[in-house]
């Protein structure tokens, strides 16, 4: 019997190399878990019928001595990443039957390393949400407590790893969508430096903020996935060769923006955060209070820039070329009916808000001001990183909350308060499990690093995992 709970990608790789485990056995066990749990948790929208065939091929590759660390490893894929011949719906009615005609860059990379793509995971529709309650196919439930949300929008991917349905997963992060669900599900979530991973073949939400990243049980596993999917892509002009820009901070100083942690944070979250800082002190890190006055504007800046880009990116889904179509009396009526039926309430809310901030008379009042503040936040981080290696915060202001608890959109948006700064500034950030609440719900501790310090984040994440039990 395979102990999936304690099995990591690194361990599985070593076992398969030694002949102690086959990919077919590993994938079969994951598929059995999915069969037993998915009806309740609603994590997978589709389990791929060729998963075992992929595993058989991987076993042959391993036997030939040509396997990589990801060969034969079952990976879950968020439902906004194109896989040739597979449906990709972004958990929407609008693209319910859309079948991808090519592979996203990250999918090509995973296939090239022989990873087993086990299925596509549920998510907030078009990645818009912090709870995965906005899926057109029903919410995902948190494996730790099914009465609570798993976070979002990559809630399905985080839950798949937490529920031992896959050893790793891909998510996309626009403002929190890898790190926050990783925190709420008790796993590791990494948002890489913007441009370190190509966005080609990813259904765009907000193009200047979106970034694909890894979700796994450990920092080492998240790094293995990142090393596979990163790299320059000719189909994405914003992508770069990460190794050409790699940065390694070495001061062993960690900055804490305490003024940013005062309001709206659960007392248990703050207590866990302070305990985590003490553990870092004990292993030689200096904790330094820092002042970042512009950081408080990250969330409002995000909720101006993001919907503006959403309204532009989703304009192409109009019922005319592809996707859901509802015929009307004329072109405008068809357009209106198709979008009304195809988009859920949260997606419509963000498109309307985006159109508003881009409209004549409000463009300068809102959008241009947000762009200027974005640059100020970027510069503030750049200056701070001259004095400290990392900036740390809790990942989320609360542990996993119950379904329907945050009906007010503003209350839901506040879930992203600690995670949006990294997206605004294009920085890498990682969430590491840091303990549990009195009711057994996981907490996350977030490290933000300078541009292209992704490797250093994996290293400090690994160190943090080692000292967590101190």
Keywords:
470 residues; alpha/beta; Amidase signature (AS) enzymes; eleven-stranded mixed β-sheet; 38% helix
Radius of gyration: 21 Å
Query: Mind describing the biggest β-sheet?
Result: 11 strands, mixed
Indicate the overall shape. globular
Low-pLDDT runs: none
Helix content: 25-40%
Structure described in brief:
The chain is α/β, with parallel strands linked by helices and 470 residues long.
Fold topology:
Elements (H helix, E strand, L loop, with lengths): L8 H10 L4 H19 L2 E4 L3 H13 L10 E5 L26 H8 L3 E6 L33 H8 L5 E6 L5 H7 L2 E4 L19 E6 L2 H11 L23 E4 L10 H16 L3 E4 L8 H16 L17 H12 L2 H13 L5 H22 L5 E5 L14 H5 L6 H6 L3 E8 L5 E7 L5 H14 L3
Parallel strand pairs: 2-3, 2-4, 7-8, 7-9
Antiparallel strand pairs: 1-3, 4-6, 5-6, 5-10, 9-11, 10-11
How would you characterize the overall build of this protein?
Helices cover 38% and strands 13% of the residues. With 470 residues, the protein is of the alpha/beta class. The chain has one domain: Alpha-Beta Complex (Amidase signature (AS) enzymes). Strands 1-3-2-4-6-5-10-11-9-7-8 form an eleven-stranded mixed β-sheet, with helices on both faces.
């Amino acid at each position: 019997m395979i102990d999936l709970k304690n099995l990591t990608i690194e361990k599985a790789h070593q076992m398969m190399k030694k002949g102690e485990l086959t990919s077919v056995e590993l994938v079969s066990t994951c598929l059995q878990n999915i069969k037993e749990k998915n009806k309740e948790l609603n994590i997978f929208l589709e389990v791929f019928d060729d998963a075992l065939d992929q595993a058989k091929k991987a076993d042959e590759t391993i036997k030939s001595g040509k396997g990589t660390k990801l060969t034969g490893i079952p990976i879950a894929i968020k439902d906004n990443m194109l896989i040739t011949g597979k449906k990709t719906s972004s958990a929407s009615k609008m693209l319910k039957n859309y079948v991808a005609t090519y592979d996203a860059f990250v999918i090509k990379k995973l296939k090239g390393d022989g990873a087993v793509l086990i299925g596509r995971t549920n998510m907030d529709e078009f990645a818009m949400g912090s709870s995965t309650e906005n899926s057109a196919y029903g919410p995902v439930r948190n494996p730790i407590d099914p009465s609570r949300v798993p976070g979002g929008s990559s809630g399905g991917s985080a839950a798949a790893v937490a529920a031992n349905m896959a050893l790793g997963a891909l998510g996309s992060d626009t403002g929190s969508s890898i790190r926050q669900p990783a925190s709420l599900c008790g796993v590791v979530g990494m948002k890489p430096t913007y441009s370190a991973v190509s966005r080609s073949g990813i259904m765009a939400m907000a193009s200047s903020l979106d970034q694909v990243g890894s979700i796994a049980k450990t920092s080492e596993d998240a790094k293995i996935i990142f090393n596979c999917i990163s790299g320059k892509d000719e189909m994405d002009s914003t992508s770069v060769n990460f190794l050409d820009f790699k940065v390694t901070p070495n001061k062993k100083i960690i900055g804490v923006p305490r003024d940013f942690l005062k309001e709206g944070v659960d007392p248990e979250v703050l207590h866990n955060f302070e305990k985590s800082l003490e553990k870092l002190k004990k292993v030689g890190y200096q904790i330094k209070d820092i002042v970042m006055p512009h950081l408080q504007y990250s969330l409002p800046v995000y909720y101006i820039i993001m919907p503006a880009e959403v309204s532009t990116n989703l304009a192409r889904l109009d019922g005319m070329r592809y996707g859901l179509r509802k015929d009307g009396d004329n072109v405008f009526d068809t357009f209106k009916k198709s979008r009304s039926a195809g988009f859920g309430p949260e997606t419509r809310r963000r498109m309307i808000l985006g159109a508003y901030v881009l409209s004549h008379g409000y463009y300068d009042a809102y959008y241009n001001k947000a762009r200027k503040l974005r640059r100020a936040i970027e510069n503030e981080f750049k200056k701070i990183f001259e004095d400290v290696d990392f900036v740390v915060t809790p990942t989320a202001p609360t542990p996993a909350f119950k379904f329907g608890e945050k009906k007010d959109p503003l209350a839901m948006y506040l879930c992203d308060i600690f995670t949006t700064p990294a997206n605004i500034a294009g920085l890498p950030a990682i969430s590491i499990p840091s303990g549990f609440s009195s009711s057994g719900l996981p907490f996350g501790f977030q490290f933000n690093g300078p541009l292209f310090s992704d490797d250093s984040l994996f290293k400090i994440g690994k160190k943090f995992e080692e000292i967590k039990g101190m």
